Structures are given as C-alpha cells and as structure tokens.
C-alpha cells in the first residue's frame, strides 16, 4: 500500500489490523478549514462500539507475538517508521494543518520531525530498559521484570496531532504493547494517514490501530474491559471522565496530561529582553493553543513599566504576522475552529467587562476564519475568570508584584500545576523559587518548553503520571517480581 494521501486525497477510513476498513457506524465526522470556515470533509469515519471491538480483537491477537519479538527487531521496525514519518513529513504536516490552521512556517514539517524523534528516542530504549535484580543473600534471588500491559489506547487532543500521538505510541510499542490511537475529531487526518507507513515499517497486523472518532469513541475505549491502559491528553473535565470510566470498568491504568494556567515570574534583576522573548513566544506559539503556555505573567514592580512596554511591543509585532497559514510569512494562524473561537472570544469579551485593563489586542482579525489578536489584560484581580481559567488561546494576564513570598503564593493559588517559569539572574533565588512552584515543570530564564528525554506532566489537576523519558516506559509496563529459591 503506497502512501499517497494529500489535501486532495484525504484518509477517511479506520485503520485496523493493517487494513483500511469502513466503520460499521453510520455517523460521520465533519471537518472545516479554520482559515475560512470552508468544509474540508463530512464523511470521515467515526468509530462505534463494533469498530472498537474489532480494533481490540486485532490488537489482542497481535500482542503475544509482538511482546516476544526480539528487541532488536522491534527497534528496527520503529526506526524505519521514524524514517518514513520523516520522509513524508511535508504531506503529514499538510494533513494536520488543513484543519488545525497552524502556519507552515511555524509547524511546517517540524511537528512530524518531532514525532519521528519520539520513535527514535524510544527505539533506543528497547535494550536498555532493563529490570532489576536483588542478591540471594537470604537464599532467594529476586528478579524484577518490566512487563507490557497488553492492549493500550491513546486519546489525544487537536493542538499537536502528530507529536502527541507519537509521544504515546512510541513508548507503548517499544515496551511490547499493542496500540489503539484515537485522534481528535478536529484533526484526524495525519493519524489516519499513518496506515501505509505502519505497514511499510513492518509492524505486524494488529500492533497499531487508528480509530477516528469523537468523545463517544473515546468513552468506548475508556470503558472497554479488554483495554489495559488509556493515555489521555486533553481537558480536565474529559480526563476526569476517563479516570471514572477506567475505574468503573477494569481498573485500567490511566495517564492524564491535562490543562494548565502556567505562571511566569519576572524579577527586577531579570534580563528583560530574554523574559519578553520567552513570555511573548509562549502566547503566540500555536496561537496560544498550548497546554503549558505561560498565560499568567507576574512582573516585579521595579521593571513592571518597562516590561509592559516591551511585552506589548512584541505582541503587536506578532499580530502583524497573523494571516493565511499557508503563506510563509505567517507566524500566527487562526484558532482551530468556530467553537474554540467563540470560547476564546467569550473570555475576552467578559474580560473587557471589568475583569482588568485591556493592554493590547482584544479583537477578531478579518471577517472570515477564526483569527484573534494576541490579547493581554493588566491589573486583573485574583478572582477574575480570565486569571483563574484555562482559555487555550492567545490571551494572558499581566500583573505586578512586590515580594517573592507574595508571588509564589499567587502562582500556587490554582488547581493547575503544569509549568512555571522564573526569570532572574540570581541563581539562589532561581533555585528557591523553582522548588517552591507547585508544578510538574519549571523553566529558569525560559518557559513553555519541553524535552523528549525529561519527564513531562503536571501536578494537581494538570495531570497524573508523566510522559517522555524513562517515565513513559514505566507508564506502559507493570513490574513483575520473580523469586528464585536457591536454598534446596
Ligand atoms: P478534550 O478533552 O475536549 O478532547 C480530547 C480528546 O478526548 C479528544 O480526542 C476527544 O474526542 C476525546 N474525548 C472527549 N470526550 C471524551 C470522553 N467522555 N471519553 C473519552 N474521550 C473523550 O480536549 P481538546 O479540546 O481536544 O484539547 C484541549 C485541552 O487539552 C486543553 O485543556 C489543553 O490544556 C489540553 N492539553 C494538554 C496537554 C498536556 O500534555 N498536558 C497537551 C495538549 C493539550
């Protein structure tokens, strides 16, 4: 099966057991291009109960042989898959961008490259994720093995379709599990297009399934009695529903990567230009639709006025690059769809109605598509909705503070805990504040970034468990203790 998908030849069927098959469900997904609202497709398969069962059957059947495949063979398949993703990165990026609206210049082929790197990184772990052993001084040799879980599923959001998919698929497959991927109903095409690459790489039938669908498909996966784990990235309310379904079904393992309202703290002694660069980028990257975007910015009184001036200037410059995502000079595209546009616009309008002072932005750009200016509110009260809730668009709140103690209390006064950033030249303060932040990730003189080899995830309601690094391997395995009696 040759890879020949493109904007004019979209993949629309489910991929099960290394074959494209039509859904047994009569419901279809409808997708639009966010740059102008035009219809992209209204006939994309939506997996229902029978389809989910078929995917689980195929994965269960493939599991015994896949888990026993010598590590070297598994690694070669994964490395080949990475090369194939890279080879087709232009087409895969196009298939994401058509309904995501991300600019070619910012995401372009970068997202597939990131996805390919996930496969290379986790392929490299295959012969290094050794178990443990404990000496037989008490007469028993103890061996602790890392065992795959079986059939596992990934349910993902729309904001980074390829990167999120591969952050889950790669460690799951590396550790010998079989995988069912459910992409977001807003961005299914890149995931659905992986079929020919899965086959060409050499994954045996049933090892990887791709089921397009909406929340109803995700709910079927979370409640399924033969799926042993769900790794979910998305909103907090959905994460809670998934954990509940997992508990009520077969107590499947759950990893949750959820929302954020990440603070960035800029002290008087910070390098102003660096602080402005990182905090402005956090807001404009992917049009602010990034879970770890620094959307609460706290600046110490001494440099507040200068920061306000520079931050506003940087965002006004960014606003000049809003436009057609298919044009190379565009750095900020539209929001993903009408619903997201209305949600973000609603926050902005209510924000303008007495929650703070509008520093910049606050309006739609153009009259077609879902473009919005980078928007900043200052002097926002600690109880305001725009300060407390995740908006998931290019909107931030900017407040001043006096003392370290005061700002730490404000930063931690939230149920989110994904990312935080501190900007200062004082290494003692940087490390002190980094340890005080209640968050899964902290940037010092940087913010809103991540690395493949270090744990990614949040505290409190921002999540449960970690992705990336060796933490991801743990998340797809259970430890088994083997005790050998050497006393007779
Ligand atoms: P969402 O929760 O609406 O949907 C995410 C996925 O869950 C989709 O595939 C959807 O079909 C599925 N789903 C919906 N209802 C379900 C149910 N009842 N059971 C199972 N699955 C269901 O989130 P979204 O709008 O697609 O994404 C935005 C959210 O994702 C934001 O809150 C953002 O912060 C979060 N996010 C978090 C991270 C992270 O790593 N922490 C990364 C990206 C996005």
From TrEMBL:
PROSITE patterns in the cross-refs: ALDEHYDE_DEHYDR_GLU (PS00687)
Stretch forming the signal peptide: none
Residues annotated as domain Aldehyde dehydrogenase: 22-482
Record-linked InterPro entries: Ald_DH/histidinol_DH, Ald_DH_C, Ald_DH_CS_GLU, Ald_DH_N, Aldehyde_DH_dom
Molecular functions per Gene Ontology: aldehyde dehydrogenase (NAD+) activity
EC assignment: 1.2.1.3
Catalytic activity of the protein: an aldehyde + NAD(+) + H2O = a carboxylate + NADH + 2 H(+)
Coiled-coil stretches noted in the UniProt entry, renumbered to this chain: none
Domain of life of the organism encoding this protein: Eukaryota
Pfam families with a match to the protein in the record: Aldedh (PF00171)
Enzyme's top EC category: oxidoreductase
Similarity comment: Belongs to the aldehyde dehydrogenase family.
UniProt name for this protein: aldehyde dehydrogenase (NAD(+))
Gene source species: Hyaloscypha variabilis (strain UAMH 11265 / GT02V1 / F)
Lineage of the organism: Eukaryota, Fungi, Dikarya, Ascomycota, Pezizomycotina
């Amino acid at each position: 099966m040759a890879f020949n998908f493109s904007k004019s030849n979209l993949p629309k069927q489910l991929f099960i057991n290394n074959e494209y098959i039509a859904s047994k469900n009569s419901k279809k997904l409808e997708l639009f291009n966010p740059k102008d609202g035009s219809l992209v497709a209204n006939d994309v398969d939506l997996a229902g109960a029978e389809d989910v069962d078929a995917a689980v059957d195929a994965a269960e059947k493939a599991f015994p042989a896949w888990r026993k495949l010598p590590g070297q063979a598994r690694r070669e398949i994964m490395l080949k898959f990475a090369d194939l993703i890279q080879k087709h990165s232009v087409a895969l990026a196009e298939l994401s961008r058509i309904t995501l609206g991300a600019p070619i210049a910012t995401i372009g082929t970068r997202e597939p490259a990131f996805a390919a790197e996930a496969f290379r990184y986790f392929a490299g772990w295959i012969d290094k994720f050794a178990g443990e052993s404990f000496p037989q001084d008490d007469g028993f040799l103890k061996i602790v093995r890392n065992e795959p879980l079986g059939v596992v599923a990934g349910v993902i959001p729309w904001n980074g379709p390829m990167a999120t998919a591969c952050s889950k698929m790669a460690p799951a497959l590396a550790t010998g599990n079989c995988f069912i991927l459910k992409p977001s109903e807003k961005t299914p095409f890149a995931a659905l297009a992986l079929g020919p690459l899965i086959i060409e790489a050499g994954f045996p039938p049933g090892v990887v399934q791709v089921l397009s669908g909406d929340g109803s498909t995700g709910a079927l996966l979370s409640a399924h009695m033969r799926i042993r784990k769900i790794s979910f990235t998305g909103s907090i309310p959905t994460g809670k529903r998934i954990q509940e379904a997992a508990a009520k079904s077969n107590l499947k393992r759950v990893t949750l990567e959820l929302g954020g309202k990440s603070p960035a703290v800029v002290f008087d002694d910070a390098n102003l230009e660096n602080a402005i660069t990182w905090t402005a980028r956090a807001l404009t990257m992917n049009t602010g639709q990034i879970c770890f975007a620094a959307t609460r910015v706290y600046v110490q009184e001494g440099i507040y006025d200068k920061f306000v001036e520079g931050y506003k200037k940087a965002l006004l410059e960014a606003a000049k690059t809003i436009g057609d995502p298919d044009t190379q000079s565009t750095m900020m595209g539209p929001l993903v769809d009408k619903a997201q546009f209305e949600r973000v616009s609603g926050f902005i309008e209510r924000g303008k109605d007495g929650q703070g002072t509008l520093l910049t932005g606050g309006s739609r750009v153009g009259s077609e598509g879902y473009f919005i200016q980078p928007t900043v509110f200052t002097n926002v009260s600690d109880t305001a909705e725009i300060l407390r809730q995740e908006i998931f668009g290019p909107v931030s709140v900017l407040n001043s503070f006096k003392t370290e103690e005061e700002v730490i209390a404000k930063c931690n006064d939230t149920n989110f805990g994904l990312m935080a950033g501190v900007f200062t030249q004082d290494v003692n303060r940087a490390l002190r504040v980094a340890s005080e932040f209640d968050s899964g990730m902290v940037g010092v003189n940087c913010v809103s970034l991540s690395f493949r080899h270090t744990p990614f995830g949040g505290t409190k309601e921002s999540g449960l468990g970690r992705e990336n690094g060796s933490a991801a391997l743990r998340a797809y395995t259970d430890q088994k203790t083997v005790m050998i009696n050497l006393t007779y």
